Structures are given as structure tokens and as C-alpha cells.
Amino acid sequence: MTTARKSLIDTANTRYYHCMARCVRRAFLCGKDAFSGKNYEHRREWVVDRLKELSGVFAIEVCAYAVMSNHYHVVVFINRESGESWDTKAVLQRWTRLFTGPLLVQRFLSGVSLDKAELMRVEEFAEEYRSRLLDISWFMRCLNEHLAREAN
Predict the structure, then answer these.
(1) Can you give the residue range of the structural domain that contains 61?
(2) Could you give the C-alpha distances from 46 to 30, 102, 110, 149, in angstroms and in order?
(3) pLDDT tens by residue, 86-143
(4) How many other C-beta atoms can be found within 10 angstroms of the C-beta atom of residue 151?
């Protein structure tokens, strides 16, 4: 039986992780499907491009990767020091490269003057997003969801 990723990862002791994801039901991620005759090789570039994009946003560095016909492997390093050194604006700018973010965050990033309560809420958003930008599960989610949307 599989174990939840949050039960397997201890970032305090280990910061390098090997992750993988695979297709189901004889689906092809890339390469040529001998059964249907379709060529999915163009999808390999989707994986590489998305890994580059995500490693520029997250505090997670890609050490190595391999894209196979129906799955991929990626070795990542969690750069906690880097992620914790980002100020509020840097965290929000990184997060909004992937997601729209609430209106309050958008207003903060555009330079609109906010009151004290709004600034406190923006700080709360930033801390939540910082924890996600240090999280392998969020990294893999952003990678897999993007690939599934492109393929479907």
C-alpha cells in the first residue's frame, strides 16, 4: 500500500528527493505508441519546459530528470535557506507567476496603498505561499496538472 508523501518527507534531515510520476491505462507521455501509431515525442519538451519554469518559481532545484515513454523521474533539492530569505513581495511575485492570487495580493503587488489590516492579511498569504513554494507536493502538483491539461 502506498504512503502519503507528507509521511515520507522530512525536510529537516533530508533535502534531496527522487520523485516520479507515471501515466495510466497504457497512455503515452512521450515517444511513439506502437499500438496506435501516434507519436507523442513533442510532449518531452513540455516536461522540460515546465521543470525549468517551476524551478525558477519554487525554492526547489532540479538536480536531474529523465523523461521516459510513460513516466518521468526528477531528483530535487529543497533550498530552504533561499525560500526563507525571500521578502513578502518576492514570495507573492513568485506565486503569482503560477496563480492569479487574491485581489488583495494583486493590489499589493501593483503598489496600491493598503491599511494595516490588509497588510497583515497580505503577510498571511505570503507565509502560506512561502510554505507551498518549499513543498515538493505543490511542486509535483504544478508539474503534473500542467502536463495533464496540455495532454487532454
Answers:
(1) 5-151
(2) 10, 28, 31, 11
(3) 999 999 999 999 999 999 999 999 999 999 999 999 999 999 999 999 999 999 999 9
(4) 13
d(CA 106, CA 93): 9
Percent of the chain with pLDDT over 70: 95
Rounded Cα distance between 151 and 145, Å, is: 10
Integer-rounded Cα Rg, in Å, for the chain is 18
Count of Cβ atoms closer than 10 Å to residue 21 Cβ: 15
Q: Which of 105, 152, 103, 151 is nearest to 126 (CA)?
A: 105
147 Cβ contact partners less than 8 Å away, ≥ 6 residues apart = 29, 43, 46, 47, 50
As for how many domains the chain has, the answer is 1
pLDDT in tens, 38-47: 777 788 899 9
Residue 66 burial (C-beta neighbours within 10 Å; 0-12, 13-18, 19+): exposed
